[in-house]
């Protein structure tokens, strides 16, 4: 298949993804939502299945594509600034384009040639984590009758599941290797979600800082899975800089509400 044809095939779901999100945010109608979202998902599933069948590709990217769509839908529903919605409309098209381009890559992300695609996937998964956890905090604010411990557990499961997805892109791990670490990250994130719930931050700020902390945790765990393990001499500067930036942002830039 020629590169030009691959680009055309990848651009098609990207374009209709932007159009669907545009119409959903523009009309904000339940009827529009319940008509367009199933159609959107159907087309995405069809294109993804068709491309994999043509390329005889076993590895599916459907989970990250569908979760990313859900993340964008949830994020545009809680963002209060109107000027960001056109940006998200463009961004989802760009993200879907990258994901469908990845379908034309080699079958395994474990190969060294797939390093750029792995990094793209990590960024997208991190964005999904931010969108979902921000939505959880927004739900706790808009619907206070929902028990927050349920939302916290759901958030911990999300962080844990996304961590597993990222680790599997880098290593061939059996369940017993990642299970305990996924549980620990999920448990820690539940605790952090619970603590952050009591701090005077907005839901987007809370989601941002929690995603930041989670990213560092899953990154260090990923290094642990590598043959050399975590080389703390190299990571001390990374952790120190992140700690300083974290404190500065909280004290001097974040609006306390």
From TrEMBL:
Transmembrane region(s): 7-25, 31-49, 61-81, 87-110, 122-142, 148-167, 179-197, 203-225, 237-256
Assigned keywords, A-Z: Membrane, Transmembrane, Transmembrane helix
Protein name: Uncharacterized protein
């Amino acid at each position: 298949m020629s590169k030009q044809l691959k680009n055309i095939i990848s651009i098609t779901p990207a374009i209709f993804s932007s159009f669907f999100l545009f119409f959903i945010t523009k009309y904000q109608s339940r009827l529009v939502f319940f008509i367009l979202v199933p159609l959107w998902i159907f087309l995405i599933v069809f294109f993804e299945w068709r491309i994999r069948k043509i390329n005889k590709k076993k590895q599916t990217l459907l989970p990250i594509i569908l979760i990313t769509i859900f993340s964008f839908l949830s994020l545009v529903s809680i963002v209060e600034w109107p000027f960001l919605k056109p940006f998200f409309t463009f961004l989802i098209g760009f993200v879907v384009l990258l994901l469908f381009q990845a379908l034309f890559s080699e079958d395994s992300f474990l190969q060294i040639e797939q390093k750029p695609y792995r990094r793209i996937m990590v960024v997208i998964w991190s964005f999904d984590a931010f969108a979902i956890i921000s939505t959880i905090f927004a739900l706790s604010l808009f619907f206070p009758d929902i028990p927050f411990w349920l939302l916290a557990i759901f958030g911990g499961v999300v962080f844990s599941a996304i961590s597993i997805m990222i680790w599997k892109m880098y290593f061939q791990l059996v369940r017993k290797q990642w299970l305990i670490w996924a549980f620990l990250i999920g448990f820690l994130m539940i605790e952090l979600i619970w603590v952050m719930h009591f701090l005077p931050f907005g839901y987007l700020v809370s989601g941002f800082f929690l995603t930041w902390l989670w990213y560092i945790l899953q990154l260090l765990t990923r290094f642990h899975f590598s043959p050399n393990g975590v080389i703390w001499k190299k990571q001390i500067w990374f952790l120190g800089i992140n700690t300083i930036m974290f404190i500065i942002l909280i004290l001097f830039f974040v609006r306390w509400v």
